[in-house]
Amino acid sequence: MINLSLNKDQGYVILSINGPISVFDMENLTDEVDHYIEDFGKLAGLIIMVKKFPGWDNLDSFFHHVKFVKDHHKLISKVGFMTEDNLIKSFPSLANHFVKAELKRFDDGQMDEAVEWICSH
């Protein structure tokens, strides 16, 4: 389950992941991001808050996630991960080889730092 908050003024989305990711979650995220990009051309970034990655509801939700990354990684400038999960902590260094967006990890509670980084040009 993803709770989504779009800051239209500064052009970033905060995603709080609290359970397995569903097709509905990915469709909702895609719709929000696509509407913003239609109006402004690019999204400054995503901040993904997740204690421990919960996985996906099913294979279809996984494919929706992969499609979102494939379709949007050139249209989102930065992705910040706020987590204490050791697996996710290593994700930015691995994913940098596959996506255009700049990736960075933040400790739990560093929301101000993550927003400042996302909004810096």
Strand order in the sheet with the most strands: 1-2-3-4-5
| Total discrete domains | 1
Q: How many strand elements?
A: 5
Q: Using the alpha-carbon principal axes, give the shape.
A: globular
* CATH architecture annotation name: 2-Layer Sandwich
Briefly note the CATH topology name.
Answer: Transcription Regulator spoIIAA
Largest sheet: 5 strands, mixed
Give the % helix.
Answer: 40-55%
Protein name: STAS/SEC14 domain-containing protein
Pfam families: SpoIIAA-like
InterPro entries: SpoIIAA-like, SpoIIAA-like_sf, STAS_dom_sf
Describe the structure.
The protein has 121 residues and is α/β, with parallel strands linked by helices. It has one domain (2-119): Transcription Regulator spoIIAA (2-Layer Sandwich), CATH 3.30.750. It contains five helices and five strands. The protein has helices at residues 23-40, 59-72, 86-89, 91-95, 111-119, and strands at 2-7, 12-17, 43-50, 76-82, 102-106. The radius of gyration is 13 Å and the shape is globular. The termini are far apart. The model has no long low-confidence stretch (mean pLDDT 86).
Give a quick precis of the structure.
The protein is built from five helices and five strands.
Looking at this protein, list some descriptive labels.
121 residues; alpha/beta; five-stranded mixed β-sheet; 5 helices; 41% helix; globular
What secondary-structure arrangement, pairings included, does this model have?
Blueprint: E1 2-7, E2 12-17, H1 23-40, E3 43-50, H2 59-72, E4 76-82, H3 86-89, H4 91-95, E5 102-106, H5 111-119
